[in-house]
Design goal:
alpha+beta; 25% helix; elongated
């Protein structure tokens, strides 16, 4: 299975973001997934999934998504509000 990252919506600097991570061991079974939801609209902003990425790689991707949101907000003169689990 290929690594899938889909973006559905641009980052709004006036919104907060929740990232939910569902890890897997990266052994080719169930894919790991990261969902990004904008609040208060509860709209999905992006998703990532892959079934061969190690846990360490998944943490890097979660960090990269948080950094992306932070950078997008900063370029629009706002401080990002990000929550993850």
């Amino acid at each position: 299975m290929k690594c899938i990252t889909s973006y559905y919506k641009n980052i709004d600097p006036n919104s907060s973001y929740i990232l939910g991570w569902d890890p897997s061991l990266g052994t080719g079974g169930d894919p790991a997934a990261i969902q990004t939801i904008e609040i208060p609209t509860m709209e999905q902003v992006c998703e990532w999934q892959h079934n061969l990425t190690t846990i360490q790689g998944q943490v890097r991707i979660l960090r990269d998504l948080c950094n992306y949101i932070q950078d997008e907000c900063a370029t629009k003169g706002s401080q990002a509000s990000i929550y993850y689990s």
